[in-house]
């Protein structure tokens, strides 16, 4: 017999769940109240996020689903207007710099239309390594891992994992040839 799991437990495990569940709606409402305070008064980060390293900075406005699935290392910087859909853990390593308008999207939806009609969704964790630089307007899709020291060009759509020390750009993001100046991609 399969033990009962709440919709929140299913969500955190990356399984199909219903976002309309009362517990999740309550969590989202609490997060929305925190975001209003944070975005209008530049409130304290640690009160809502899963973990916040030393000298981490998120410039408002900032948008997320729950907050408690976001884990920031030391010296992480998120510029204005970042969106982080955190239905499962999103980990951002020490020294990562994330440009304005970046979207980090762990939420995903079934490919089967019948499941989508049931308003079910799931999440796939995202890991962003140490000293990663993500240019403005980039989109990081569910389940992506970006290795340490990688660079993601502005406006890129990251659809596959990015190796450590790689530089990628475009839609979909692809490795760039060496020798290009960073000014050309970000």
UniProtKB/TrEMBL annotation:
GO cellular component terms, semicolon-separated: cytosol
Coiled-coil ranges per UniProt: none
Sample GO molecular function, one term: acetyltransferase activity
Pfam families tied to this protein: Hexapep (PF00132), Hexapep_2 (PF14602), Mac (PF12464)
Ranges for domain Maltose/galactoside acetyltransferase: 8-54
Gene3D superfamilies: Hexapeptide repeat proteins
Alphabetical list of SMART domains matching this protein: Mac (SM01266)
Keywords (A to Z) from UniProt: Acyltransferase, Nodulation, Repeat, Transferase
Entries under InterPro entries matching the protein: Hexapep, Hexapep_transf_CS, Hexapeptide_acetyltransf, Mac_dom, Trimer_LpxA-like_sf
Role this protein plays: Acetyltransferase implicated in the O-acetylation of Nod factors.
Family: Belongs to the transferase hexapeptide repeat family.
Protein name per UniProt: Nodulation protein L
């Amino acid at each position: 017999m399969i033990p009962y799991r709440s919709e929140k437990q299913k969500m955190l495990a990356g399984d199909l769940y219903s976002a309309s569940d009362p517990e999740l709606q309550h969590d989202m409402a609490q997060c929305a109240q925190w975001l209003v305070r944070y975005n209008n008064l530049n409130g304290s980060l640690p009160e809502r996020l899963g973990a916040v390293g030393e000298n981490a900075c998120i410039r408002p406005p900032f948008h997320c689903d729950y907050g408690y699935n976001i884990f920031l290392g030391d010296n992480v910087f998120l510029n204005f207007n970042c969106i982080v859909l955190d239905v499962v853990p999103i980990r951002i390593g020490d020294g990562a710099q994330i440009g304005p308008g970046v979207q980090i999207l762990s939420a995903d939806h079934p490919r089967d239309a019948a499941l989508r009609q049931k308003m079910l969704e799931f999440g796939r964790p995202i890991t962003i390594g140490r000293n990663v630089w993500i240019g403005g307007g980039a989109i990081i899709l569910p389940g992506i891992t970006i290795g340490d020291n990688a660079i993601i060009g502005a406006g890129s759509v990251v659809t596959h994992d990015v190796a450590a020390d790689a530089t990628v750009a475009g839609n979909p993001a692809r490795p760039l040839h060496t020798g290009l100046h960073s000014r050309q991609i970000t």
